[in-house]
Amino acid sequence: MPEHNFLVVEDSPTMRQLITFALKRIPGSKVVEANDGIDALKKLSTQKFDVILTDINMPIMDGLKLVSMVRNDPVNKAIPIIIITTEGADEDRKRGLSLGANAYIAKPIQTADLLNVVTQILEGKK
Amino acid sequence: MDKETGSLNKKVEEFLQVFKKGEEFTQEILRENEKLRYRLAQLEEVSKFSDREGNFKVHSMEERIQFLEEENKSLLERYRQVEEENKDFASRYVEVESENNNLANLYVASYQLHSTLDFNESLKIILEIVMNLIGAEEFSIMMLDEKTNDLIVVAQEGMGPEMHDPIKIGEGIIGTVIKSGEAFYREGDPTDLKGVDYSHPLVCIPLKIKEHVIGSIVIYKLLVQKTAFSNMDYELFSMLAGHAATALFSSKLYSQSERKLSTIQSFLDLLKEK
């Protein structure tokens, strides 16, 4: 069974738990949680991840800054990133995707939609 | 005379010969006829037998065709039934999946609500649930003030300062919800805002411990991508009505008891010193 390592970056414990709950339904998944962008960068420097799922509005370092830093990091720039946020307007979506995110999901999330996007990314379709 | 007699005799003889030949020919025809009758009888017999055999074969083939047609019909019926069952299983699977996801949402929400005894943290968790799981953009948590018995905003998200005025029990939609203990859902399209009307919320959920109302969650505006309430949202509202009330009430009591304990401890320390 292939192993999939996910990094969930979210300041809300409720959303972290909900996303982790959903991801654990994928066989072979391992989830690491981070509270904000800085915490995520620390974890990225010590572990390898297959997908990063990040919120946008977070204290200390927001999700958009994290996306742009990961895309400029020679080691981690190829990791697929999914933005999960309450910012659902088209311009927000365009901004997130233009910074290099692979997918953009607006909250409230539907578990089936999230798993569908994650599966497509793992299969290299996104 | 003799000549005539001789000629007559010759004619008689010729006639007799012709007659004899005719008799022989007739007998021959009769024999042939007999043979033909026999042959005809034989053929009729054979024909009768082959007709019976043919009829038997045709009949058994017809029975076989009928049997196969019925078998085909029953297989088609079974196939249709299996296809129906398959469709039924597929829709059941989708239903179970959706139910499973809803339960996960409810579990996470109630787990988080009861994960703390800190009043402010409880408020923060309720805000997170209403924003992230329901998709509200402008909303508030109101609680009854023990001294004035008015409803006051204890936490809010995205709202202007004009909404912070206290509300009396029975006053407007929110006051009526507190008085009756019945949730309010505005009719019509929830995205049809015509400007956010703080006196006419989209949803007002009473926070109840049994029949005792301690406050309410009031939603005025949804996130731009949220176009309607789902069944899951109503489940969450119903869960919040009970669990958020308990979480807020117990964390408030805990904070009060902690404060009292600290005061008593200071008093005891003071007595010890004396």
Q: Beta-strand percentage of chain B?
A: 5-15%
Which architecture of chain A would the CATH scheme give at its second level?
Answer: 3-Layer(aba) Sandwich
In the residues of chain A, how many domains can be counted? 1
Q: Give the largest interface pair and sizes.
A: A-B, 17 and 24 residues
Q: Report mean pLDDT of chain B, rounded to a whole number.
A: 89
Please indicate the count of domains of chain B: 2
Give the strand content of chain A. 15-25%
Secondary-structure-based class of chain A equals alpha/beta
Per CATH, which architecture of the largest domain in chain B?
Answer: 2-Layer Sandwich
Oligomer: heterodimer
- Tally of helical segments of chain B: 4
Describe the structure.
The complex is a heterodimer of chains A (126) and B (274). With 126 residues, chain A is an alpha/beta fold. Chain A has a single domain (4-122), classed as Response regulator (Rossmann fold, 3-Layer(aba) Sandwich), CATH 3.40.50.2300. Chain A has five helices and five strands. Chain A has helices at residues 13-23, 37-46, 63-71, 90-98, 111-122, and strands at 4-9, 29-34, 51-54, 81-85, 103-106. Chain A starts with a strand and ends with a helix. The model of chain B has no long low-confidence stretch (mean pLDDT 89). The longest helix of chain B is centred in the N-terminal third of the chain and has 112 residues, at 2-113. Chain B starts with a helix and ends with a helix. Chain B has 274 residues and is α+β, with helices and mostly antiparallel strands. Chain B contains four helices and five strands, in the order ααββαβββα. Chain B has two domains: 1-113; 118-262, GAF domain (Beta-Lactamase, 2-Layer Sandwich), CATH 3.30.450. Chains A and B meet through α1 of A and α1 and α2 of B.
